[in-house]
Design brief:
alpha/beta, Rossmann fold, UDP-galactose 4-epimerase, domain 1, seven-stranded parallel sheet, three-stranded mixed sheet, about 40% helix
Length: about 290
């Protein structure tokens, strides 16, 4: 299968590209810079120059592919305005890719986040949030899943709060970055809230399985760790960096503050059973031991 991948040179995307190539697929990778194009080509993919805002390029990429995996996101959490812009750009890109695939029965795999469910671990049956700081992403992904009724084998892989590899990535990576800048390994509130996690290499396997066999309109959870306490995550970060570990105001985390402070464990029981997906790589707390002082 020839697969058009957006975000193919990031932490998750590079793992997905390698997984696809390792299983006989070919990859056309969106590349927004010369450096990204070189990275894609070095990995074995064919680069297609353009960014997530180049809608004509996205149409061209989807038109020449047997399937699409969307992973690109601006990841600018510096302010509510920046986050809203990133969500709007992604929503337009998803709509464009989806329209190109209508009536083709080709697979369209997109990424979203795992939802929260008060008092329990969320499951694949729980709805995505459509309000709050990232509500726009939920609405855009629901629109993609709705394309199942228009001849697109659309599916969503829901990612936990931390997708990691060698101690970097996701919300835990943000905690590490903030700790380096502030001199404190902090956590919001009492730190008892739980964040789910998964290794990037395990995530890549699930994206491939979804591309190859997931039914239209389905959602899957890329969750290996159902939920580690944030204070336990911060404790490892603090020990590795030689920094004090303590509670800090949720405002420390900008527009993501309310999300950082919430308890949001998540389950992948259905995903494991239905797609025969089984995480095999290090869990988060073990992987954080790779953080360099």
């Amino acid at each position: 299968m020839r697969v058009f991948v957006t975000g193919g040179t990031g932490l998750i995307g590079s793992a997905v590209v390698a997984e696809l190539l390792g299983h006989g697929h070919t990859v056309l990778a969106l590349a927004r810079s010369d450096a990204s194009a070189l990275a894609a080509k070095t990995a074995g993919a064919e680069p297609l120059r353009g960014s997530l805002t180049d809608l004509d390029i996205l149409r061209a990429g989807a038109a020449q592919a047997d399937g699409v995996i969307h992973l690109a996101f601006a990841n600018d959490f510096s302010s509510p305005e920046a986050l809203a812009k990133a969500v709007a750009e992604e929503s337009a890109a998803l709509a464009t890719l989806g329209e190109e695939l209508v009536g083709s029965d080709r697979p369209f795999v997109t990424a979203s986040g795992t939802p929260s469910a008060p008092g329990r671990a969320s499951t694949e049956a729980d709805p995505l949030p459509t309000d709050g700081p990232v509500g726009g992403r939920g609405r855009a992904v629901m629109a993609v899943l709705g394309l199942a009724s228009r001849g697109v084998r659309s599916t969503a892989v829901r990612l936990p709060r931390t997708v990691h590899n060698q101690g970097t990535g996701g919300f835990a990576g943000l905690l590490t970055d903030i700790a380096r800048r502030s001199g404190v390994s902090g956590y919001p509130g009492d730190g008892a809230q739980r964040w789910p996690a998964v290794h990037a290499l395990d995530t890549a396997v699930l994206f491939r399985l979804a591309l190859e066999s997931a039914p239209a309109g389905s959602s899957w959870h890329a969750v290996a760790d159902e939920g580690d306490k944030v204070r336990d995550i911060a404790a490892v970060i603090g020990r590795r960096l030689g920094l004090p570990v303590q509670s800090v105001p949720s405002e420390t985390y900008g527009p993501l503050g309310p999300i950082f402070a919430s308890d949001q464990p998540s389950s992948s029981t259905h995903t494991r059973q239905a797609l025969s997906w089984e995480p095999k790589h290090p869990r988060l707390l073990e992987d954080l031991e790779n953080i360099q002082p």
